# Entry
Amino acid sequence: MSEIQNVTVLGTGVLGSQIVMQAAYAGKNVVAYDIKQEFLDKLPDRWEWMRGHYSRDLSDFSDEKFDAAIARITGSTDLSEAVKAADVVIEAVPENLELKKTVWAGVGAAVPEHTILLTNSSSLRPSDFADSTGHPDRFLALHFANMVWKSNTGEVMATAQTDPAVFTRTVEFAREINLQAFPIHKEIPGYLLNSLLIPWLNAAGNLYVEKAANPSVIDEDWKVSTGSPRGPFEIYDIVGFNVAYNIIQARQPEGSPLRKFGDELKSRGIDKGHTGVGDGLGFYEYDSEGSIVRPNPDWVIYED
# Structure
């Protein structure tokens, strides 16, 4: 049996909740931490949403196994309590550098001496907040893709201060929770996937701001031209508006067209609780199985 049995996940949003279930379904005991009980109260609905996807996408699925995974999950709003017995802590809080520093300072003061400290940061450099943990030798990145049970990549990226043994153990841990591990040997903002994905999504955002075409038209052109199964606005819905907005805020200068696009993601989506597939409404409307019903009229520019 692995010596890593107790996992704490910080943040229970779209991806954080998926990470919780990914670890629990693999047999780990998981504490799901968030700052408010009302966020934790949403988890049962998320489990049922995931249950449908797991049943369709995983060959080893059974309701008994899924229920056993749920039973291994405990919620907490007390950070010190949430991490005090953790073998691994995985942080999935918003892409805000000062917030991450604050959270990791609290974690670092409360974790045992053996705990591996992992960030799922999408675009910030782990080394920019490694020292906040107080244990930079045990701190590195493990980056998950959305719809993690199916797109089960685990990008493992060390900083210059990470103990090589901890890096190796994290690669092993990623495999233990059913990820395909991708070791990254030099710290790169955005890892491998997002270094390729973000410029593509940014280009689509710019096309929308310039009112070049409707999102569904841009998506269809991309899919027909490249043979790709999804277009950029479909990917925005999978990534989630919250993640996309926070990346834009962190990486784009004030007054840029993409800042305008980010502001629209917030005002027309996030503020209304419409952030993509996980909520059933993003650039598209989705049915209960996550299939597209039609383009969301709120984002249609032209009557084509």
Summary: Residues 64 and 70 are 10 Å apart (CA to CA).
